[in-house]
Amino acid sequence: MAFEPKDSLALYDAMTKALKENKVALEEAPELASALRKLQPESFFQHDRIIDKLRAREYEHTIKECFHDWATTGHDSLVEQVRFLLC
């Protein structure tokens, strides 16, 4: 399912908020914060003068992949929190 750019940003924001609120996950898996920092839009698009559709799709794919990693590596509480924040 394809996202609109605002959906990718909403997922990023929800993931960031969930991680900040879940100190246990943050302490046990600091790599989650590191991976998410790389997906901060200002960082991800820092060298792009214009964000075209292909680049936006790349960001969408990468943020979805990160969320999928959370779901498949046992971070169920974070996944549920993100789902709650998006509803």
Description:
The protein is mainly alpha-helical and 87 residues long. The chain has 6 helices and no strands. The protein has helices at residues 5-21, 23-28, 30-38, 41-44, 53-72, 76-86. The longest helix is centred in the last third of the chain and has 20 residues, at 53-72. The mean pLDDT is 93.
Task: List strands and helices in order, with pairings.
Layout: H1 5-21, H2 23-28, H3 30-38, H4 41-44, H5 53-72, H6 76-86
Helix pairs in contact: 1-5, 1-6
Descriptors for this entry?
87 residues, single chain, mainly alpha
Shape type? globular
Number of helices: 6
Report Rg: 13 Å
Number of separate strands: 0
Report the end-to-end length measured between terminal Cα atoms: 17 Å
Binned strand content? under 5%
Secondary-structure content class: mainly alpha
Low-confidence stretches: none
Largest beta sheet, briefly? none
From N to C, what is the helix and strand string? HHHHHH
Summed up:
The chain has 87 residues and is mostly helical.
